Request: fold
Amino acid sequence: MRGPRRLTRWWRRQSLRTRLTVIAATAIAVSVFVAFQVTSELLDWELRDTVEDQLRADSRVLATNAERAGLAQVELPPYPGSGRLMRVILPDGSTRTPDGQPALPPVSESAGRVVQGAAADLMEVGDSDDDGYLVYTLRAGDGAVQVARVADDSPINQFGFGMLLIGLLCVVGGALVGRTVARTGLAPIDRLTAAAVRVAQTRDLDADIPDEGGGEIRRLIQSINDMLAALRDSRRAQRLLAEDAAHELKTPLTSLRLNVELLIRLDRRGTLDSGLPAESRTRLLNDLGAQVAELSNLAAELTDLARGDVSDERTEVLDFADVVVAAVTRARSRMPDIEVALDVTSVWVSGRPAGLQRAVLNLIDNAGKWSPPNQPVQVRLRAEGAAAVLEVDDAGPGIDTADVPRVFDRFYRADSARALPGSGLGLSIVQRVVDAHGGRVAVARSARGGALLRVELPAAAPPASIGWFTAGEDTAVH
Reply:
């Protein structure tokens, strides 16, 4: 087990160039080995077929001569020193061989059956002390004749040696070619790496990486440039958020500091009761409480806005009417002097309950700031086609045409809203939540003259367990 693990660790530590070089060399080596094995087998079969055909032809000539002259009298020429070997097998099992010929292996039992007439011929491999023979036995007269050749592996060995040299040259050449290809192919990656390192060291997100190469390299460079653009936008948004937050926090903090300093100064002089009448002291404490509440709300909205779309809350299929009713209930407890008229129909959407409730609550809070005491804030929810439509309108002065394009910007507050409490983040949070749910939000003028904020979210099919109960029915709450 340690060997494979060490090899795996070594492989992971190598560069991509080294891996490509090793892969190329290994692929060529395997290809050469497979080619050698296949070619060797084919060559061996071809050579053996040729030798067998020659042995059969020589045996037929010898058998013809033996049948004419007789097995005992047929002339056997002296052995020339190389080439074929021959032998005549008499009916009694004795043999005749040419003068000077090396001894052949003893007659096998299978060859004996040919002599006895049980078989017409036989091709077999016989072994002697030093050599291997390919022996062909052919029935002739009352006996048989045999022609043999020494099994010669030298052509195969020579071919294998040649293939070995060629394979080594191919492996070395493949490694060099693989190295060259890897260096050439990875050159754009090297330049891309250098550019990325330069961006990381200088933290200059404005330096786009030059678009070069093609195919996968170009897509990779474009993806990294898109990532840098997203990082630039994120850094710009963070900077704007910090600047706007500092600006918005300055006013309530200054007012809170002045009021606290006044209380501390009067307390040190011992004139807190005499220098600050009860009515003024109550008003001052109320101001302090309002300023602390404003800071708390602003901090909560900044935290929610800075988190963006990051949330641990799971997306689920829910009845948007339940979310709207819960938001209206919270709004009534926060603004007891403002009447909220509710008219909702059950519409199912896919989303995060807390985020949607926060968006609806911000819409109602915004409308409550402008709604006259004797005019309710109207909240309506209905289904339109494949969308859930939420409308919140008030009977206030409405939004000026010049302010409409910026009404959802962070910290933006119209001139007419400067005197009202708020941070200018409420509607920005609404737009972020709606965008995260694949919907859209728009502002228009209400039929009552005030502002009409309209939210559209993609509708979803109700869960199967309750779909049969709500099918064909609308639920309205007033």
Remarks:
- Residues 414-423, 468-478 have pLDDT under 50 and may be disordered.
